[in-house]
Design brief:
signal; Alkaline Phosphatase, subunit A; alpha/beta; EC 3.1.3.1; magnesium; two-stranded antiparallel ribbon; 13 helices
Length: 376
């Protein structure tokens, strides 16, 4: 009898091992968000970085879809409404952060995927090369009618509705935090310490025991920061949710395309170490007005853009909506655009990413991968 039981268990284990990873339940979810990282930007970034098309790791991910990015009140979304759709499964008006407009003129908070994770005891992290209060990171934990309300976003960051709040926070906005918390008569160091964080400006704070918050006003090395965040979050046997945003706006094309290549390197590295129980999802909140207009094969694209173009890009950045048409390789209209963006995925639940879908469906993909039910 005992032998028979062991045989049954062994057979069940063998059967489970035969189940495709995409059909198994995820323990962790990592969402990589390329802010303004539309198809034209990814295409140009791969050629700029590797001198050949379809050379990004993102472009090799096994499950791919095209995601609509329109908001509740506009065909062209901003980051607030775009990220709200992904994090809550609901479209909202431009400028609103994880909240819906209500008939009485107020707003209704929308529960975010990060809050689902916090409620269930998972560890959570938010890493961005933008201000930590900006629309994309804020949409993971805050609920405000205006993305400009940085004071309220900072307060909600430290007063979570579910769980104990985000476990690892890395981003810019140190000076903004000083100004916001000063209105409450405290420093950021005092406010974060009271909320249970180890707080500072160095990403070396991350990776140890206890919650950590790193705010700075300068760029930081992305891969070491994300690896340290994973080391810390993965200690939780219940699993984790991590959102990593990297700015890919190409009002400065060289900078934006470099950031796109940086995020791609990040995804390549994290995909190698995250484990087979992790759903990895890349998408963009919206696209941007960059187009490749020319360029010769077998010559680095960066060398084909004439030096005076840098000044033209700088001038265009001061005048949103300006098109730089004289560049023989890349032209940029400094504005968000409304076409679909790529969603690419690997790991448990990734098979749900296919075809044409709404950005709100990506929330359902993450929820289903964890085996959770959506709450009304």
């Amino acid at each position: 009898m005992k032998f028979g039981s062991i045989a049954v268990v062994a057979a069940a284990g063998a059967l489970l091992g035969a189940v495709p990873a995409s059909a198994q339940k995820a323990r962790n979810v990592i969402l990589f968000l390329g802010d303004a990282g539309g198809v034209p930007t990814l295409n140009a970034a791969g050629i700029m970085a590797h001198d050949r098309p379809q050379s990004l790791f993102i472009q090799s991910m096994p499950h791919v879809a095209l995601s609509d990015t329109s908001s509740l009140n506009n065909w062209v979304t901003d980051s607030a409404a775009g990220m709200t759709a992904i994090m809550t499964g609901n479209k909202t008006n431009n400028g609103m952060v994880s909240a819906l407009p209500s008939p009485d003129g107020g707003n209704k908070p929308l529960k975010t995927f990060l809050e689902y994770a916090e409620q269930r005891g998972l560890s959570t992290g938010v890493v961005t090369n933008m201000p930590i209060w900006d629309a994309t990171p804020a949409a993971t934990f805050a609920h405000v009618p205006s993305r400009k309300d940085k004071d309220q976003i900072f307060r909600q960051m430290l007063q979570p509705r579910f769980g104990d709040g985000v476990d690892v926070l890395i981003g810019k906005g140190q000076a903004d935090a000083v100004a916001s918390f000063a209105k409450d008569g405290v420093t950021p160091d005092q406010a974060f310490a009271k909320a249970g964080y180890r707080f500072g400006h160095d990403t070396a704070l991350v990776g140890g025991a206890g919650r950590a918050a790193v705010l700075r006003d300068e760029d930081f090395a992305p891969i070491p920061a994300v690896e340290a965040t994973l080391r810390q979050l993965s200690r939780n046997p219940k699993g984790y949710f991590l959102m990593v945003e990297w700015d890919m706006h190409t009002d400065d094309p060289q900078k934006g395309l470099r950031h796109a290549a940086e995020m791609d390197d990040m995804i390549r590295r994290i995909s190698a170490i995250a484990g087979k129980d992790t759903l990895i999802l890349f998408t963009a909140d919206h696209s941007f007005g960059l187009r490749m207009r020319g360029g010769k094969r077998h010559a680095p694209m960066a060398q084909q853009q004439s030096a005076p173009m840098a000044q033209q890009y700088a001038e265009a950045a001061a005048k949103p909506g300006t098109t730089i048409a004289s560049n023989p390789v890349i032209s940029v209209e400094d504005t968000h655009t409304g076409e679909e963006v790529i969603a690419a995925a690997s790991g448990p639940g990734a098979n749900r990413v296919h075809g044409f879908l709404a950005n709100t469906h990506l929330f359902d993909v993450m929820l289903a991968a964890m085996g959770w039910k959506k709450e009304n």
